[in-house]
Amino acid sequence: MHISEGVLSGPVLATGAVFAFAGTGMGLKKIDYDRIVHVAILASAFFVASLIHINIGPASVHLILNGIVGLLLGFAAIPAILTALILQAVFFQYGGLTTLGVNVVVMAVPAVLAHYLFLPMLGKSPTLTFIAGFLAGLFSILFSSILLGLALWFTNQNFFETSLAIITAYIPVMIIEGIVTGFCVTFLLKVYPEIIPKKK
Amino acid sequence: MKIKKICIVSLILVMIPASLAFAHKVIIFVWVEGGMIYTESSFGSKKKAKNCVIKVINEKGVVIHTAKTDPKGNYSFKIPENIDSDLILKLEAGAGHLGQWKILKDELVSEPSEQDISTAMKKKENLEKKPSIFKIFTGILIIFLLAMALKFLKRKTS
User: What is the strand order of the sheet B36-42 is part of?
Assistant: First the structure.
């Protein structure tokens, strides 16, 4: 899901950078003092997740975890994802520094939306909590794939073909992320309920 | 309860073959030998980039050759005639993944020396190297240091 250097056009990169900058500012402003540690924990999880490869038959996919980061952090997910993406670019050469803005938008916007869509379901019952987590994980990857397709389309490629190919390629990731996110939030609610944000 | 158990077992089964590996580092390794340009493309040493587009671009940005990698991630072709420029070989691995390698003009006309080969092999090894535990822990440490700095700033401003 990390777009490499040299793929996107200048205007797309600039637009991504502007949105990422604005989102990061808003995210930093909205982080509660008491939840900064939670932001660091989830940013670390996101940073490491892309190293975990899961083999499904002949294919191999990796975790992204933007769903759980967004579900639990809301707007604070934007600076968390930005920090993790910078470190992934510098230490692992995933994506790149010029594509950072677009990559932040692709992964953080669906994450923030997942927070507002699925947080109200958390904690109502174990089944609903799992479903909320599952949907947050699945939705985030689905929407990220669409944004990725859009970014490529704005550069020069055929949107429908590109998006369809990307969404198809990410279907296993959507399901796995959904299951992982579902189990994670159910588990966290039992052992560390403080990490679940209080509904306002 | 039964469904829950099935889900847990399925997840464990899916996670068993999980391993620390390359996620999406796209690598194209190129060398010149006997009038031919050879390429090896992968997402790390074991995962080959199959059926991916390779574009050969000259200094002016003109695409002078396009091809696809074979099922082993390899592709080779004869050095195009009348080339008087460095060449960039771009590997397009889909979904915004791109790797590239530059061949200098001089490399196209002369046979590589022992030193050139060893330098290129070192470059290849570095590209294919797995992320070290040290880098992973350094990254996590940086995240927590930034969080502490933010905590300090927030406390100061409030």
Answer: B27-33, B36-42, B74-78
| Rounded alpha-carbon distances, angstroms, from residue A149 to A107, A172, B94 | 12, 17, 11
**By the CB < 8 Å criterion, does A39 face chain B?**
yes
Q: Does B26 touch chain A (CB under 8 A)?
A: yes
Burial of B58 (0-12, 13-18, 19+ CB in 10 A): middle
> How many domains are contained in chain A?
1
pTM: 0.79
Q: Which uninterrupted H or E stretch holds B156?
A: helix B133-157
pLDDT at B13: 40
pLDDT of res. B16? 39
Question: Residue A191: which CATH number?
Answer: 1.10.1760.20
Cα–Cα distance for residue pair A164/A32, rounded to 1 Å: 39
Tell me: pLDDT of B63 over 90: no
Is the residue at A3 inside a domain?
no
Q: How far does the CA of residue A103 sit from the closest CA of chain B (Å)?
A: 10
Tell me the chain A residues in contact with residue B27 when contact means C-beta distances shorter than 8 Å.
Answer: none
- Asked if the structure places residue A22 within a domain, the reply is yes
ipTM of the complex: 0.88
Specify the pLDDT at position A200: 59
Here the tokens at position B139 are: 């990254």
Residue A184 amino acid letter = C
Q: Is residue A2 part of a domain?
A: no
Low-confidence ranges of chain A (pLDDT < 70): 53-61, 157-159, 199-200
**Arithmetic mean of pLDDT, B121-129:** 74
Q: Which domain holds residue A66?
A: 10-195
Mean pLDDT of chain B: 76
Residues 6+ apart with CB under 8 A from A80: A27, A39, A40, A42, A43, A46, A69, A73
